[in-house]
Each structure stands twice: as structure tokens, then as C-alpha cells.
Amino acid sequence: MKESTNKKQPLYVILLLILAAEAIFILPFVLQRIFRTTFLESFGISQIEIGSCFSAYGTVALVSYFFGGPLADRFKSHVLMSSALILTALGGFYLATYPSLYQLHILYGFWGFTTIFLFWAAMIKATRIWGGSDKQGIAFGFLDGGRGLVAALFGSAGVLIFSLFITKDIELTSIDERRLAFKQVMQFTSFAVLAIGIIVYFFLRFKESGGIKSEKKEKLLTINNFKKVAQYRAVWLLMIIILCAYYAYKMTDLFSQYAEQVMLYNKIEAAKIGTYLLYVRPVIGVVIGLLADRTRASLWIVIGFLLMTITSLIFYLGIIDDSKTLLFILSIGTMALGVYSARVLYFATLEEAKIPVALTGTVVGFISVVGYTPDIFAGLLMGYFLDANEGVLGLQHAFGIMGIFTFVGLVASFIFYRHQKTTS
Fold this sequence. Notes:
By secondary structure, this protein is an all-alpha fold. The protein is built from 17 helices and no strands. Helix 2 packs across helix 7 (175-203), helix 4 runs antiparallel to helix 5 (101-131) and helix 5 (101-131) packs antiparallel against helix 15.
């Protein structure tokens, strides 16, 4: 039966998808991205130790991607996503008790299961269905751009709550005072994610067309489907593209730290830098999504990697210091443009690569097994260079490694672009 992805879906569906898609990652990732040094101080851990927590997350996620993909082809998206959000929120309440490093590893492993096995492929599949066959760019543009806005709002609320519990100059506060303030941020975030999980269960309902009903669900969870998707050359190229783009995205964790250690901002000012950048993401998402639907998604991924490579070289060379504020803002803005452009579009290319909608979950799971391995090693790699080299030198090395990844991504995305152009 011919697949159809053109059934018009309600606007509120994509709005709920946007809200859920970022809320699920606020606790594991966004809080420590915005409050990097505060997080480390509050838990009494080093750069490499927080990296090891992300490795625990990534190790569980690696298995979860593989099996979670077919799961999304078998069960309703709203059930999987709601369960994931509620369980993730419960983990957030536990985080607010300041568990030990060993317990943090267990928690991050648990989050690897909730955010990936239950949530990830279901969210991607739901977004692809909403976009239909002719609006993939704008669907994923809305998704990633909207996620940036949600993250920015969470970040702004977090900074506000944190500052409300800091009653004097931040530099004069003790670690215990900052721990208490940060605990309020974690608890607020957990309550918000829990509420979103409940809303998703009751209101994220839409008709999952796109050929899904033409398949018998019991036949979707098979090794034959993995064999089918492995035959697409585009799938293997997307693995490399996502791996490189995701590693670059992980590097945005260091923007606040760079602002504090190199640009000499205080902790609240540095946290605001990370938050402000998140407000750029919605604009990039919508604009790039519209451009991709009028041209080709793969072209803008190539441009994104080019921007990332250039700016990572600037940071690696140590050109930026506390006397070059404008260059710092322009550089992180340009890098964010490149990173978010790639993130917006790499799953929008599934339509360009002519991947069947009924196999979306399986394809996403298959690609993600390799594509999201930076969850395992990126934190450890960054942590090693940051702990071994104080201040700007460690950050330079970290951005140098990023440059290698983005250059590889540039080559892979260009090959993907040329391949799809010759086969279309």
C-alpha cells in the first residue's frame, strides 16, 4: 500500500512535541550546561567525573537506541513519551538530594533508558508524521528551534530562581549557599517535567497515518527491518554526520565555562551567556527549516559544518580573550548557527533519502547507535583536556578536537549532498 504522510495534523501537536522534546533533556543536560561550574562545585566532582556520568548515560543510551527504535514502530508515541517524562522527573527529584558520584552514575544510566529507549525514536517519528512528505524541513525546524526556546525559558527560570536564593554578591557566597539555591532550581525543573509528562499523556493524540496502518505491528519488530535500512547508503552517511554534529553540540556545554574562565564573567553572567544562546536557536530552527524546504536539507547541513569548522579553529588558536568581547559573541553566535543548523536538519533528510515512513523508528534507532556515541566519550574527552590543562589552554585543546570532528562531518555531509543530488 502506498504510504501517505500528507494528512494534515493539528498545530497543537507540534507545540506539545516541542515542549516534551526539550523538557526530557533539561535535567540530564541543560542544567549542567547553563550552571556548569555551579553543578561541579555543588556535587563536589571534577570535569572528568561529570564526563564519566555522561558516559554511563551514553552506554545505556547506546543499547536503548537500538531497541527503542523498533519499539516506536510498535507502540503509540504519546504513551512512550509520557512515561519517559514522568520517570525522568522522578530522577530529577533524586538529583536534588545531592547523591554521591556512584549514585550519579546510576542516575545518569537510568536517564539513558528513560530519555532514549522510551522517548527518542517515538518523538522523531511523531515529528516526521506531523511534517508529511513536503514539510520535513519546517517540521524539524519547528521542533529543534522550539526546543531551543523551551530550553531558554527553562534556563531563564533557573537563573532567576538561583539568583533569588542568592541574597548577596555571588562571589561572596559559600558553596553551601550555592548548593541550596541550585537545589531549588533542580526541584522546580523536576516538577515542571512531571507536569509536562501528564499533559502529553492526555493531549498528545493524533492520527498516526503515513503508512503505519498498512503494516502489521507485530512484524515491525524484526531483524529483517534492520537489514532493510542497512541497505541505504544514506543511512551510513547520516551515522557519521550525526556523530560529528552531536559532538559539536556537546561542546556548547563549554560556552558558559569559557565566559567565566577566559572572559572573566561571574557565575550568573556566565550562566546568562548559555541561556541567551538558547534564544537564538528558535530563530535558526524556523529560518533554516523554511530554507531547507525550498532548497535541500543536506545543503544547509554542509554550510553548518563549514561554520562550525571555522569557529572551532578560531577558539583553538586562542585568538579570543577578555579584551575581545565582540569577537567572542560573534564567534559563539556563528558556532551556534552552524551547530543548530545541523541539528535541525539531519533527521529531515530521511525524506530526501526516501526512507519509508513505516521504518522511521527502526532507521532512527539504527543511525543513533553510532550517531549518538558522543554521549559515551565526549564528556570524558573534554574532561580530560580541561582537568589536565587549566583555564584557556584546556579549552583550546577541547575546541581543537571539535574542529577535527566538524571537518569529518563537513566531508560526510558533502558526500551525502552529492549522492542525493545524483539519485534524485
